[in-house]
Amino acid sequence: MVHKIAKLSQSVINQIAAGEVVESPSSIVKELIENSLDAGAKRIDVEVTSGGQELIRVEDDGCGMGKEDALLSLERYATSKINSVDDLQSLVTMGFRGEALAAISSVCHFEMRTSDGTGSRLVSEGGKVIRVEPCARNRGTTIEVRSLFYNVPARKKFQKSKTASMAAISRLIETVAIAHPEIAFSLNAREFAPCKIEGRIEEILGPHEHEVNGEGLVGYLAAPNKAMAMRTGQYLYLNKRPIFSPLIAKAVKEAFGTRIGEHMYPRFVLFLEMSPEQFDVNVHPQKKEVRFCNESALFRRVQEGVEKALSPKQVFLDSLTFTQFEPLSFSEKFSSLPYKMEDQTFNWVVAEKPLALLGKFLLLEKEGLFLIDLRAAHARVLFDAFQIKEQRAQTLMWPVEIPLSPGEEERVIELEKLGIECRILKKMLIIDALPPFLEPADFPKFYSEWRGGKKIEEIATKFCHSRQRPFSFEEAIALWKEVQKCENQLYDPMGHLIFSQLKEEDLGRVLMRK
Ligand code: ADP
Ligand code: MG
Fold first, then answer.
1. How does DSSP assign 453-473, residue by residue?
2. How many CA atoms are closer than 13 Å to the CA of 83, on its beta-carbon side?
3. Which residue has a Cα nearest atom 19 of ligand 1?
4. pTM: predicted TM-score of the whole model, two decimal places
5. pLDDT tens column, 4-37
C-alpha cells in the first residue's frame, strides 16, 4: 500500500479538537454562556430542547461582534482575550483558548446573529460557513446549535439520555447563576431575576444557616440537617469560576464533623479568592479542575473558616452582653437544681433563667428566649460520650440483664468500645456500667436500636428522638449544661438543631403568621 501524507483540513482538525472542548450539550452551553459573560452581558437566555440534541440557543445582550470578528470567532485559536502567554497570568475572562466556537460549529448546524451596532448573521454547517448576511438585531449575540454531532455519529451514540443531559444543563446554569447574581438568567421557562447573592443562593440551594467569612473565603452553609447523600448541594468557585475540587469538598466535610452522618454531604456555596500565581487552571480544556500551589494550607484555611462559621460561639456569644449576677427568681421547682450557679467555666450561665419545660423542649431566658430541643441535646451529649475514649462510665447499682440472641456474643465487644461495661453470663448480657445520660431503664431500647447495626450517630440520634419518657426539669437543665460543653453544641449528630434563640422580632413574626 502506498502511503500518502496529506495535511488534515482545518474543519477536520476542528472536529478532532472538538472532542476535548465539546463532549456534551452541557459543555456547549457552558462555553456559550461563558462567552456571554465575557461579553459583559446583563441578561442571558438559554433555550434547550431534547436535552440539547435538537436545539441549544444562547442569547445575550453583551458587546456583540462586527461582521469581521464574527467570521474570525469561528476559527480555531481566534480570541480577543489574550495576546501572549503572559496574559494568562492576569486572566480575568472565562475563555481564553479561542477554541470553543470553532469546535462547536464544526459538529452541528450553527447559526450566529450578532451585533455591535450593525447586525450580522452567519450560518455554518459542520464548520463550513455557508452564509454571511446583514441582519437586524439589537446589540448582543444569539447562537443556535442544531443537530448536534450529526457528523460525528460515534459521539452522538455515547451521549447521555435527554433527561440526564437536561439535568446537567440545569445544574450548570444554577452554578453559573450563583456566581453572577447581578445577571438575569433563564433556562427554558425558569427565570433567575437579578438579585443579591443571598437571594440567588436561597433560590437555588434553599435557605442558608451559616456564613463563612475568612481570608479570601466567603461561604454560605445550609444547616447540617439539610445534608444529602449526594454531593449535588455543593457549589465551589475560585475567583467566581465554578471549579471541582475533592480537596476543598473534603475540608468542608471535615469541618462539619459529627454534625452530619459519615456518609452525608453538606450543602454549601463557597467562593475562594486567590491570586493567579497560587493556582493553575490551565490543566484541563474544560477549565474545571484546578491545581493549587499549597494544598495543605488551603485545606486548613477552608476547614477553619467553615468550623468558625458553624460554631455557635460565633453566632451567639459575640453578641451577648454579660449581665451581672443577680439572684434569680426561680419557681419552687427550680430551687433544688443540681447545678451550681457560680460555675466558673460557664459563668455566663448565670444570666440564664429556665422558664418552662414544654414536653421535649426547654424554654429559657437569656438575652431573649432560648428554645432547646432536649432530644437533640440528648443525642449530642450521648454521641459525644461514646466518642470519648477515657470513659466516665457509671457503675450501676443493679446490673441490667438482656437475653442474647444466638450469634450476638461476638458483637458485644463493640459495646465495650462505647464505654458500656458488660459481660455475658449464661446467654444473658449483663450491663455493669453505662455512660452518663444513658439510663439503665432505657438501655433495652438502646440495645434494640444498636442491634440493627446502623452507624452510632444514627443509633444515638434515633434512640433519643424516639424517646417517650418525659424529661424532668433536673434532667433538662443537666442536659443543657452538658451540651454546652460539647464542641458541636448547635447540632446533634444527624444535623438537627439543638437550640434556637428567639428574639423579640421572631416572636412578633410568629404572631404575624397566618
Ligand atoms: P475564547 O472565548 O476562548 O476567546 P471562543 O471560541 O469561545 O474563544 O470565542 C472566540 C471569540 O469570539 C471570543 O474571544 C470573543 O471575542 C468572541 N465571542 C464569542 N462569543 C461571543 C459573545 N457571545 N459575544 C461577544 N463576543 C463573543
Ligand atoms: Mg469562549
1. T--HHHHHHHHHHT--SPPPH
2. 0
3. 35
4. 0.68
5. 777 777 777 766 666 666 788 999 999 999 999 9
